[in-house]
Q: What sequence folds into this?
């Protein structure tokens, strides 16, 4: 119960069928394993393989690249459906597409695309995107990892942290941002493909995280790791602009994930309110609970409208940077607010990890941080309004 009717959102028949298909998969395959996966902090590779067989990793890519010929709306619908029941699985798909395959598709050479995309878009392989560092998060320009050319090879030194899909059994490579020189007195940042198993490239132990326990996340270190010069992804010195474009798209996907999390909390709260009896009557009969759940429904609706609008702009080739920031801000707030309210409605049961709302409560906080913090989204929106630091008007 509680799902909003997708027929009211202007979706095509194919898009509605995709959403229904993934929703069924989420309920029948993903949800039953979610608690054990969270408890054991294990990403289910069989589930990942099934998502690959369904074509989910290739959704927004053209058929001639090995994809499904869909768009970002299709990807968002799949991510949203998965996030209702398991955010760890949803972020595995989101990162696999937005941060793993998309940089290769957008900026790779024909040879790189031909070599890497078939396995990435089929889900046979995953890839990570090494951007964040101990001293470079929101301030990505503070990147310290370096790469220098030596006898036809890039020699990479540095460290990355919080890198998703970087240590799974099927992780094929990570794309890292590195300082490769200077341009006009500023750091020249480029992106370089580093295959798994490269000598000098070490994947550290998985993090002990507050949430997203079943998502694969590791720190990375590079000590004179050498890769061919041809592993440069995109033009030298364009790494900064490349990752900004990738993050703009990724924020739409994170907004869809957040919407799914908010919807999962809404559905759980409705079901619990109908079945839980307090002082001889269902919890749903109390107006305070009715109003609380009504606000949860409102948040899901607004969040879905926001990410769908940003995705449609992106799919039409129109500017979407500000709309992506608005979508991520709106939806991540909705996820956190709905997780808090659902946990309150569940009472003591909401504090037990066997209940999905407890896992959503832990998982949703990162949605306000990853792929651009709340403060970064506010900054993007403010700049679009012409508000800048030092404005004296």
A:
């Amino acid at each position: 119960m509680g799902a909003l009717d997708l027929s009211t959102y202007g979706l095509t028949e194919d898009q509605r069928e995709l959403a229904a298909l993934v929703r069924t998969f989420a309920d029948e395959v993903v949800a039953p394993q979610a608690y054990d996966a969270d408890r054991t902090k294990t990403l289910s590779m069989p589930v990942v393989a099934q998502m690959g067989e369904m074509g989910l990793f290739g959704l927004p890519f053209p058929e001639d690249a090995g994809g499904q010929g869909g768009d970002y709306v299709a990807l968002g619908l799949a991510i949203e459906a998965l996030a209702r029941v398991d955010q760890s699985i949803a972020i595995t798909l989101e990162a696999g597409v937005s941060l793993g395959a998309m940089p290769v598709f957008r900026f790779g050479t024909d040879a790189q695309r031909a070599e890497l995309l078939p396995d990435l878009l089929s889900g046979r392989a995953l890839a990570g995107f090494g951007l964040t560092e101990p001293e470079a998060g929101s301030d990505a320009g503070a990147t310290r990892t370096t790469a220098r050319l030596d006898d036809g090879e890039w020699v990479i030194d540095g460290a990355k942290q919080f890198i998703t899909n970087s240590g799974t059994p099927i992780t094929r490579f990570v794309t890292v941002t590195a300082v490769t020189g200077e341009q006009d007195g500023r750091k020249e940042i480029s992106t370089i493909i580093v295959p798994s198993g490269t000598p000098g490239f070490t994947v550290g132990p998985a993090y002990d995280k507050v949430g997203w326990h079943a998502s694969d996340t590791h720190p990375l270190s590079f000590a004179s790791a050498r890769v061919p010069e041809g592993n440069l992804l995109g033009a030298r010195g364009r790494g900064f602009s490349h990752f900004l474009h990738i993050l703009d798209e990724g924020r739409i996907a994170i907004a869809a994930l957040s919407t799914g999390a908010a919807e999962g909390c809404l559905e759980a709260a409705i079901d619990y309110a109908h079945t839980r009896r307090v002082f001889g009557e269902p919890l749903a009969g109390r107006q305070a609970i009715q109003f609380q759940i009504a606000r949860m429904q409102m948040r899901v609706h607004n969040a879905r409208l926001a990410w769908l609008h940003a995705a449609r702009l992106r799919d039409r080739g129109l500017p979407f940077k500000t709309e992506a920031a608005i979508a991520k801000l709106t939806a991540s707030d909705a996820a956190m607010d709905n997780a808090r309210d659902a946990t309150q409605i569940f009472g003591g049961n909401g504090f037990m990890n066997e209940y999905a709302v407890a896992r959503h409560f832990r998982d949703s906080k990162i949605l306000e941080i990853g792929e651009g913090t709340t403060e970064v989204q506010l900054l993007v929106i403010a700049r679009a309004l012409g508000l800048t630091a030092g404005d004296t008007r």
Summary: The domain at 241-384 is CATH 1.20.140.10 (Butyryl-CoA Dehydrogenase, subunit A; domain 3). The longest helix spans residues 239-275.
